Amino acid sequence: MTTNLVNNTADNLSKLNYSVLVEEKEGEYQATVWGLPDCQVLAATREDALKNLHELVNARLQNVEIVTQEIEQPKSEHPWMKFAGKYKDDPQFDDMLADIEAYRRERDAQMEEYYRQLDAEEEQA
Predict the structure, then answer these.
(1) pLDDT tens digits, one per residue of 4-13
(2) N or C: which end of the chain has fewer CB within 10 A?
(3) Helices (H) and strands (E) in the chain — how many of each?
(4) Is 94 exposed, middle or buried (0-12, 13-18, 19+ CB in 10 A)?
(5) What is the per-residue pLDDT across 29-63, written as a single tens digit (0 to 9) for each?
(6) Is beta strand 68-72 parallel, antiparallel or unpaired with respect to 2-6?
(7) Whole-angstrom distance, CA of residue 48 vs CA of residue 41
(8) Most confident of 57-61, 91-95, 109-113
(9) What is the pLDDT of residue 1?
(10) Where are the beta strands (DSSP E) in the chain?
């Protein structure tokens, strides 16, 4: 797995958008930054909650650095690929496929008969 650090300048980080959950709880408003449960405030009004949360987030971001990392997902083989072609040289493979096909035809015929019986019973009712 590789990680690439993307350098951000102050210009492209001058504004930060974040989602806020605002909930009314027992006459007060709770505002929480989505994904940051420790960035949460309670206030008497919705507007005060949002204002207080904005101040809290700004205070928290004063002494932090925001970096963006690009993480490349490790390449892994499809879990079934190791079985692809496993039976290509097996002399009984074609016989096995024929048996499966015959069984499938038999089961389809049974189901068809079952549905015919259901239709006949429905018509008699």
Answers:
(1) 444 555 555 5
(2) C
(3) 2, 5
(4) exposed
(5) 999 999 888 899 999 999 999 999 999 998 988 88
(6) antiparallel
(7) 9
(8) 109-113
(9) 42
(10) 2-6, 20-25, 28-33, 36-43, 68-72
